[in-house]
Every structure is written in structure tokens, then in C-alpha cells.
Design goal:
By secondary structure, the chain is an alpha+beta fold. It has a single domain (6-190, 216-319), classed as DD-peptidase/beta-lactamase superfamily (Beta-lactamase), CATH 3.40.710.10. It has nine helices and 17 strands. The chain is globular, with a radius of gyration of 21 Å. The protein starts with 5 loop residues before the first strand and ends in a 7-residue tail after the last strand.
């Protein structure tokens, strides 16, 4: 690839939706330069799963914190081809079925697509566009066609759940989309100023009048999603950022586009959401590791939060309760369950059955060949 690996960053305040920082690339002194934080549009990969898959599914009560879902590809089109692959190209590594908590933490593609199939791509598309402020999605009426094949492009497909978008999204928009998952469910149009006043003191522009503030998801869904994303930082793919933010609680999600052309990391603490993108201006495989993105993000967030008073994410709202579950089955644990975790549920939507736990057989993982994936 030509040039150096570039990076971009967006930082948005949870409480107000105010944009606190934008980094458009390596160089900041370029006049009228390309601002990658706002103008770049790239495939977000798995960083799109929380807003396109899991938040809508919890909001609509298709799944809960510990719903167990099969970790295997399925057929979603007319030719019955099994899809998708997991990042490590194996299936069943964590068990034939995996809980929501674990599947999101380790970013299983198979489970994400199964959950999207419950919600429906059209409904998920509506959440992304109307609730989370993603403006780059493509519908039939947009009349977008692939330049090489002539095929009509549309984002109301199963690929939506894996961040496989026609145009992608920007760090700026993805950052703002995560804000509801850190503040109790409220989305506010991200803004870089509050008012513009002329020399006579008259208000020319006022974001309080022009910005949109909506309840993107319920407080209950936002709280549960936040707990799930804390799991990603504690035991999952964003493990390296768990100790960032100077002791504040941390949640997060990683994303890698096809062929490792784009790395994404979204980090949340009670004050801010920060999104970092890394890649080449001309999309190309990166030999660098996403761990470098995580390390840089941790260092930046540490500096941003230095000296801030300790606070937590919003408390559990009415209508949410905690309950124990078997880490293997997702059901209420019995005395035989060796690994018991605490989950968070909407009232009435917790585990409904008690686990019948037998000694597990030797774990059998499957590869792509088992599903005729080429």
C-alpha cells in the first residue's frame, strides 16, 4: 500500500452529545485537508454489532443477557450456502451454543447473524438510521449500483449485522451512535458548538433548537447493553482497554473489516465515548495489529480522564433486575453448574428454565470444512 497507516478519532460527551475532540489524521496543519474523523466512510465490521443487532434484539425482547444461541453458520439465501465465518474460522470453540454475553464478548459472527435474523434486517436498518443516527446506509430508493457488476446495492441485508455496509460509516457517526449505550438510551445529534452570536449579541445559530434529542432505546435496554459491553472490555476482544480511564468503569467494542483493511475501537466510560479508526487511505491489508490501536486508545483515554471525579454509568433503572445464570446453558443455575455468572434482565425476561447440568463431554470444535465453506 502507498503511504503510512492513518488514524482518526472522535470523542463525544455522554451527557450532552457535544463533540469534545476530532482528530482527522496524522497531520493537523493541512489547510482544507481531508478530515478522516468526519469525512471518512469505511466498513465498521463487528463494531456495528451492538447498534445493528444486539440493542434492537434486546429492545424488542428477542434475546436477553444469557440467551443461548448455536455457534454455527446457517443458510440465509436462495442457494442455501452456509454463512458466515467466524474470525478464527472455527465453530463451537466455546460450546455448541453460546450465551449473548459470551458471543458479544468474543464477537462471534455466527451468533450475531442469527440474532439479526430474529430482528429482521429491515427493522435493524431502521434502528441504525432513525435511532442511532447512521446517515450513510443505502436503500432501494437510493438507486446505487455496483460499478463492476451492475448489481443494485442495499444495506437491508444480513451483512448489516457484521458491518458490511455499502459505504461504511465515519468515526464521528459511529461514536455518536454509541452514546445512548452509555447515558441511559438518549441520542442527541452530535455538535461542535452550542451557539453562534453576532457582534450585537444576537443568536444566529442555536444547537438547542436545531439538534434532535430522542430516546433511541429504553433505559432498560441501554443499561443491559452497557453491561454487555463492559463484558467485552473485561473478558473479550477489548480486554486491553479495561484498565484505561483512570479507574473509571469501561465498556467497549472492537471491529475489523474484511481482509483486515480497517481497525476500529469504541471505548465508553461514564463521561465520554471515543471511537478510533486505523487504516490506509487507499484500503489495503494492514500487517499491524489491532492491539496497537487498543494501546493507543487506552493511553489517550487515560490522559483525557485524568483528574476527573469518579462516577459510574447510570444505575439500573426500574424494570431491570439481576439474576444468576449458568455460563454454559444461559439458564438459571442448579447446584451442579460449575460456572455461574450474574446477568441483567428486563423484569419478566430472565432465564425461564433451570439448567440440567451434566458433566460436559470433550469439547468438539468444527471447522469450515464441516459446513462445506470454501
Amino acid at each position: 500500500p502507498s503511504g503510512k497507516v492513518e488514524s482518526a478519532l472522535a470523542l463525544v460527551e455522554n451527557e450532552t452529545g457535544a463533540v469534545k475532540a476530532l482528530v482527522g489524521g496524522r497531520k493537523y496543519e493541512v489547510k482544507r485537508g481531508f478530515n478522516r474523523a468526519t469525512q471518512l466512510s469505511r466498513q465498521p465490521g463487528s463494531a456495528f454489532k451492538p447498534i445493528a443487532v444486539y440493542a434492537p434484539a434486546i429492545e424488542l425482547n428477542y434475546i436477553n443477557y444469557s440467551t443461548a444461541i448455536a455457534d454455527e453458520p446457517s443458510s440465509y439465501d436462495d442457494d442455501n450456502s452456509p454463512w458466515p465465518r467466524n474470525y478464527d474460522r472455527v465453530f463451537g470453540y466455546y460450546g455448541s451454543s453460546v450465551t449473548t454475553y459470551k458471543a458479544l464478548a468474543v464477537s462471534l459472527n455466527t451468533v450475531a447473524v442469527k440474532v439479526l435474523n430474529m430482528v429482521g434486517p429491515e427493522t435493524a436498518y431502521g434502528f441504525c438510521e432513525n435511532k442511532f443516527g447512521i446517515s450513510t446506509l443505502v436503500d432501494v430508493d437510493d438507486n446505487v449500483f455496483d460499478e463492476k457488476t451492475g448489481k443494485r446495492m442495499i444495506d437491508k441485508t444480513m451483512s448489516l449485522g457484521l458491518g458490511g455496509l455499502t459505504y461504511g460509516t465515519s468515526p464521528y457517526e459511529l461514536c455518536a451512535a454509541y452514546v445512548p449505550l452509555g447515558n441511559g438510551g438518549t441520542y442527541t445529534t452530535p455538535h461542535c458548538y452550542t451557539k453562534v452570536v453576532n457582534s450585537r449579541g444576537e443568536v444566529i445559530l442555536d444547537t438547542e433548537k436545531t439538534n434532535q434529542t430522542i430516546q433511541a432505546v429504553s433505559e432498560q435496554t441501554a443499561f443491559i447493553m452497557n453491561k454487555l459491553l463492559q463484558g467485552v472490555a473485561n473478558i473479550g476482544t477489548a480486554y486491553e482497554v479495561r484498565n484505561s480511564s483512570n479507574g473509571l468503569p469501561v465498556a467497549g467494542k472492537t471491529g475489523t473489516s474484511s481482509d483486515a483493511k480497517d481497525f476500529w475501537l469504541v471505548t465508553l466510560n461514564p463521561y465520554y465515548v471515543m471511537t478510533v479508526w486505523q487504516g490506509y487511505d487507499e484500503p489495503a491489508y494492514m500487517s499491524t495489529s489491532i492491539r496497537e490501536t487498543k494501546a493507543a486508545t487506552s493511553a489517550i483515554m487515560d490522559e483525557i480522564t485524568e483528574g476527573l471525579e469518579y462516577k459510574n454509568f447510570p444505575d439500573a433503572p426500574d424494570g431491570v433486575c439481576s439474576a444468576s445464570f449458568c455460563a454454559a446453558s444461559g439458564d438459571s443455575p442448579s447446584a451442579e453448574c460449575p460456572d455461574v455468572l450474574t446477568g441483567w434482565y428486563k423484569t419478566g425476561y430472565g432465564p425461564q428454565a433451570t439448567c440440567i447440568h451434566a458433566l460436559a463431554p470433550v469439547q468438539e470444535t468444527k471447522t469450515e470444512a464441516d459446513f462445506n465453506l470454501e
